[in-house]
Design brief:
The protein is of the alpha+beta class. Helices cover 41% and strands 13% of the residues. The protein contains 17 helices and 17 strands. The longest helix has 26 residues.
Length: 504
């Protein structure tokens, strides 16, 4: 069997086992991944910066006894420091080039992973579709006319296309889970404080942003967490220590779990029949696994909750733009996209008191959510309200123009109009997905699971949210769902080197 075919069929754990046995060399894996990256790039457009020379050099010297020795990997082009590598954040602002590796990068390298590229994201991770003026449209390997989601859409596209078996990703409002739902992947949004963002930042978006990965398999997601979790001295949060290894949790049966399912939209917006079918599939699989499933409502998670989340994000974006202007030594308003500019202006309109009040309300609601769902081992709920959208279909220009024009008129009436502005922003920008921000606010872990394929042949995943600090139960449950669904061997219907198109 060709190396290209092995790369396509194996997950990261499987590739590492072949390296450990001496059946394949890291150089062969890296060369195959680079060839696959170049072959698929015209179709999916998921690469921000190639790291080919550094990858080939590292493959020659990597310790072949390391847990993931020689496994090709991708690092998201956002919110991470990679020594000597420009990080654009999907923006036309001049990139930031670190003279250090972030703690997560250090841990990836210590595990034996070999980064071959950085992956695309929308500008500053602000859209749940990976499209930017800087890099263009990233496309879904299942159907290149459709989105791979965002903001970790480049990472998801590379994994789904068979370039790498797993890739770094981050999640501040669904940016690991939404691309996973769109691309047929596993995506774990970890508990707050499980993995560090340091030293680039201590926290991001008031503690709502976490880093981890998208992968083909639950066991890869678990092993990557074993190799990267744990606070460092600069971390402001620390998640509860696991009872054992995450890989062991993924390898064992979960036992009989008490599950809940939440079907409603926090925004009261439409939910497609395909999304509800995906949720029904997940419930049926859970019951097949022997678990009890109870329908619940979360009436306190509504428009006010999402509005406060949007306000906190807008304030964070405004602060980021100030920092970027200071870094490059000039105003950057004219160099960012309209959506970023509009969010910045909204953030600048809000007083510090308003933002702080909103964050406190979010925290109070999160405490209530955690308390009222504590009796469940996990809560199943949707991730995307509609199947993966056609590329370009959520171009926010119209909504942004409306909001921007309205903002120009708010000098004397801001306090009366700001709620209406946010209502328009939520309905236009969050129509695609209504749920992921809940766990970013609460700090709970939540895992995206591939369970459904639409009538048009597109993946549509759902999520299971767990108790704070309890990734172990989620991983055990997810592994069982993966086995019951038969998803593990499924691949996007791209042409496979040495074979024909393979998918469903």
């Amino acid at each position: 069997m060709s190396i290209e075919r092995v790369l396509w069929e194996q997950d990261a754990t499987g590739l590492a086992e072949l390296v450990h046995k001496g059946e394949i060399a890291p150089q062969e894996l890296v060369d195959a991944a680079i060839a696959r990256a170049e072959a698929t790039s015209p179709d999916i457009n998921a690469i921000a910066t190639p790291l080919y020379d550094a990858a080939r050099a590292r493959a020659k010297t990597v310790d072949r006894t390391l847990p993931l020795a020689g496994v090709p990997f991708a690092l998201k082009d956002l919110g991470i420091g990679i020594k000597g590598v420009p990080i654009h954040g999907g923006s036309r602002i001049p990139p930031f080039t670190a003279d250090f590796d972030s703690v997560m990068v250090e841990r990836y390298l210590a595990a034996g992973l070999i980064p071959i590229v950085t992956s695309t994201s929308p500008e500053h991770g602000l859209r749940l579709m990976t499209e930017s003026a800087r890099f263009g449209i990233t496309r879904n390997p299942w159907n290149t006319g459709h989105t791979t989601g965002g903001s970790s859409g480049g990472s998801a596209a590379l994994v789904a296309a068979g370039v790498v078996p797993a890739a770094h990703a981050s999640d501040g409002g669904g940016s690991i889970r939404v691309p996973s739902a769109c691309s047929g992947l596993v995506g774990l949004k970890t508990s707050r404080g499980r993995v560090p963002l340091t030293p680039l930042v201590s926290e991001s978006w008031y503690g709502m942003v976490v880093d981890h990965a998208v992968s083909r398999s639950v066991r890869d997601t678990a092993l990557l967490l074993d190799l990267t979790h744990g606070a460092d001295p600069l971390s402001p949060y620390a998640a509860r220590a696991p009872k054992g290894s995450f890989a062991a949790a993924a390898a064992r049966e979960p036992g009989k779990l008490s599950l809940a399912v939440y079907r409603k939209s926090p925004l009261g917006l439409p939910i497609s029949a395909e999304t509800l079918a995906a949720l029904d599939t997940a419930v049926a699989l859970a019951r097949e696994g022997g678990h009890t499933v109870e329908e619940i409502d979360l009436p306190f998670i509504g428009r006010d909750f999402i509005s406060d989340f949007c306000k906190s994000v807008a304030a964070a974006v405004a602060g980021t733009m100030r920092a970027e202007a200071q870094r490059v030594g000039r105003p950057v308003t004219g160099e960012v996209e309209r959506a970023t500019r509009v969010l910045t202006r909204l953030g600048e309109m809000l007083s510090a008191g308003e933002v702080y009040e909103g964050v406190q309300r979010l925290n109070a609601t999160a405490r209530r959510l955690i308390e009222e769902t504590a009796r469940y081992d996990a809560v199943l709920m949707p991730l995307i309200a509609h199947p993966p959208l056609a590329c370009g279909s959520m171009d926010p220009k119209g909504a942004d123009e409306f909001i921007e024009n309205l903002l120009d008129k708010l000098h004397l009436t801001r306090l009366l109009k700001v709620k209406a502005v946010f209502g328009q922003l939520m309905d236009k920008s969050l129509w695609f997905t209504h749920w992921p921000a809940i766990q970013n606010v609460s700090g709970q872990p939540s895992i995206a699971l591939p369970v459904h394929v639409t009538a048009d042949g597109l993946p549509l995943g759902i999520q299971a949210a767990g108790r704070p600090g309890d990734e172990e139960t989620l991983l055990s449950f997810a592994a069982q769902m993966e086995k019951l669904s038969g998803w593990l061997k499924r691949r996007a219907p791209l042409k496979v080197p040495g074979g024909s198109a393979q998918g469903f």
